[in-house]
Amino acid sequence: MSKSRLRVSAAALAAALSIGLSSVASAADTIKVGILHSLSGTMAISETTLKDTMLMLIDEQNKKGGLLGKKLEPVVVDPASNWPLFAEKARELLEKDKVAAVFGCWTSVSRKSVLPVFEELDGLLFYPVQYEGEESSKNVFYTGAAPNQQAIPAVDYLMNDLGVERWVLAGTDYVYPRTTNKILEAYLKAKGVKDADIMINYTPFGHSDWQSIVSDIKKFGATGKKTAVVSTINGDANVPFYKELGNQGISSEDIPVVAFSVGEEELSGIDTKPLVGHLAAWNYFMSVDTPENEAFIDTWHDFIKDDNRVTNDPMEAHYIGFNLWVKAVEKAGSTDPDKVAEAIIGLETPNLTGGKAVMLKNHHITKPVLIGEIQDDGQFAVVWETEKEVPGDAWSDYLPGSKDIVADWTPPISCGNYNTVTKKCSGQNY
Amino acid sequence: MPVRCLSRTGLRARLIAALLLIALMPGAFADPGDFQQGAALIAENRFANLEDGVALVAASGDPKARQLLLALQGSDLYLRKSDRTLVIAAKGADGYDLTDPLTGESAGTAASKRELKRIRINNRLRSQLSAAIAGLDLSHQDPAVRLSGVNEMLANLDDDGLKLLRERIQVETDTEVREAMTTAIALGDLDSADPEVRLQSLDVLQGNLHPAVRGAIRRLIETDADPEVLKSAQRVQDSIEFKLELYSLAETLFFGLSLGSVLVLAAIGLAITFGVMGVINMAHGELIMLGAYTTYLVQQLMPGHIGLALLLAIPAAFMVSGAVGILIERGVIRFLYGRPLETLLATFGISLILQQLVRTLISPQNVPVANPDWMSGSWQINSVLSLTMNRMVIIAFCLIVFSALYLVMRKTALGLQVRAVSQNRAMARAMGVRSARVDALTFGLGSGIAGVAGVALSQLTNVGPNLGQTYIIDSFMVVVFGGVGNLWGTLVAGMSLGVVNKILEPWAGAVLAKILVLVFIILFIQKRPRGLFPQKGRAAEG
């Protein structure tokens, strides 16, 4: 590097520093909250809504007088569905904007990408989407469902209430479906399901030619035993999948499909006639009739100025996460990440579907599990729910590698990956 | 059942007994009062009561029962919020026309769905409803309805259904329905204790491919003790298995051709712009996307005419994408002829701009494009082989587009000029061809065809800003494999890649099949760099 260029970059550094300092100065009268959701690219479909949800929640909190006497100030960045850019933007939020907490990410790969940044800079991330588990970071709070809060109860429902004996595990080819299906396969085998009665299938992102797969499912289901599809197919690949099911004449009565990634948002704007009766497992449905949910939907419609917009499960997760964070900051009397992380454990806040969400020692929360059937208006009718909230389990009990592992972020363990047999913390935080 | 002995006692006792029976066993026997009572239970709109209500209505024997159950099954049954009565709603001129299911008479109108509350049903109810409706169908006046009723019952046959079938077959007049009933009864008779009856049933079921029949025969082979029956069952099963394999092969071929026709549609515009003109157009996918969005917009303009809108979208998409194509050619590409790398980068930039334009102007989310009725469902050839309508329409559409394009290139003055310019630009100009105009029109033609492909794709996949990206690689693959500059090559390459992909898919999985096809093409290009149908003559050397 030549001298002159060195000088230029030094000047740039100084400029960056001074910008950083000035933002610290202005931060004195507001508390900054980072919002890390893709506003462009493939994930924009799902994540834009979450950005708006956060803006609404912050807006509502400010109407109530802010937090610790200060106004909250949202800082929105766009990681553009680009996984490495997630890490850069996270760094920008923590180093440059000095945000008190970040709410964001959707796909597991984006979360894995920002994780080292949050651990290095000691930030707080609230992650609102159902995921595959096998992780618990000191700096991340998982407000979406772990596998035992979505996948396992859904399989139980199919097995016990619908008498399903043959299983198709269909998913998109990436980490969440692969891990979830591994857990489900182990679980089904533990319940005595034979190898021949399980069919596993993976497809690429955005797969659109479902003819062969649907025809295979049809053949697999034609043996006389009750068959169901457990779908971890992600994103918009679901639309041609369900269309093909409808066209090939597979109805929800013959072979029901229970999906973990299809919610109100995904159904809005598509013709749901061929989907009626298929199932989804979530911790929240827009159709649930509670005063809290009604108020939330009204606020959302007022904020977004469109009465046709739907609410969905990750939105509720952000609602819970944000409320827990607000309570923790109030309890700690500070936005310091370490103090907030300590204060937040054990705090509780109402769910939108009734009951309470409690932040557990493993940084997961308690959630009710609901199974809904798709109706032709794009909403779900709840057909089954757990009696009480299910505590989120970071490390699956059904995988040989993680059976003995627990996460506990309170002393004396203070570890995200603690082996209860060897009494050792692996040292890695996730 | 103690009904007969009760009938010897007094009238009042009989009445009480009958009422008790109705209360304890909904649907035990027909009574017009059941219909009212069942409807009242349904009107309570709770899953638990709905089941009893449906059972009562189904068994009531009331002529209006079928209509009520069909409405419930089709989610057309509502509670009117104002007076909490049941109504059947159908979309009318303004709002909804309501019918009272109890009397069958009109019950006024509702301006919007907000005045109504839908009676929701779940899967258990749906199965119950199909079974109940199938039972009622058996006495319907239309033989087609009776036939579908029998087929519905075949799928989950129980003792009650079998009893009903034995009754109805005595009075059935239609031969086809009688045959179906005979099959269903034979299926039930497989459980008979008499080996002779089982043998006869097997004879009836010979060659039947219905899943229920296959399941029953498989069970029979596993459990039956009679050697004679076993032998016969094994023979029946073998013949079924052979047929199944044959049909499965036909199905794979159909899937392959349908995937192939999508590939050909996506690639054929590129075969013009890249194949004939030599322009590497990375924005080709976005031109397809624009065609798909045009379909969406045309549908938005004509709500209620989905099919007509789709047909109108074909010329509209051709114009839109063609116009954008000409704009790209005149604005950018014409300055870059002979500089393929820069063309590639510039058109890649254009593709990003077009994507972002759609995101900003319309929505970053996918938009819904409706399928007309004649593109939904499938043509059921028999119980294992059915060809989906949308795929058949697309295959036909692909062939029509291909023929039209082929005729344009071979039989029109424009086609002649295009070929002349692509073979030897200088000579063509010397002969008086305005090569700049031909370039623009050719690019417009290729782009317009991409737009038409977009109309077809909008019926199969999601219409969103990223639609084009999914197809750009596949399109180049097909054109290169088929041989640059050859329309026939594109057709053969697209179709064969589709079929190969579908043959590989069942045993390799969708991901690996795609990889294998790519590897195959790379190896093929090593051996024959000019593709399946290389261009011959002087142009090929240049």
3D architecture notes:
Chain A: Keywords: Signal. The complex is a heterodimer of chains A (430) and B (542). By secondary structure, chain A is α/β, with parallel strands linked by helices. Chain A has 2 domains: 14-145 and 312-366, Response regulator (Rossmann fold, 3-Layer(aba) Sandwich), CATH 3.40.50; 148-285 and 369-391, Rossmann fold (3-Layer(aba) Sandwich). In chain A, 38% of the residues lie in helices and 19% in strands. In chain A, the strands form 5 sheets. In chain A, strands 7-6-8-9-10-14-15 form a 7-stranded mixed β-sheet, with helices on both faces. Mean pLDDT of chain A is 88; it is low at 1-6 and 10-27. With 542 residues, chain B is mainly alpha-helical. Chain B has 3 domains: 31-126, no CATH class; 138-245; 254-374 and 410-541, no CATH class. Chain B has 22 helices and 7 strands. In chain B, helix 8 runs antiparallel to helix 9 (175-189) and helix 16 packs across helix 17 (413-423). At the A-B interface, helix 2, strand 7, helix 7 and helix 8 of A face helix 6, helix 11, helix 12, helix 16 and helix 21 of B.
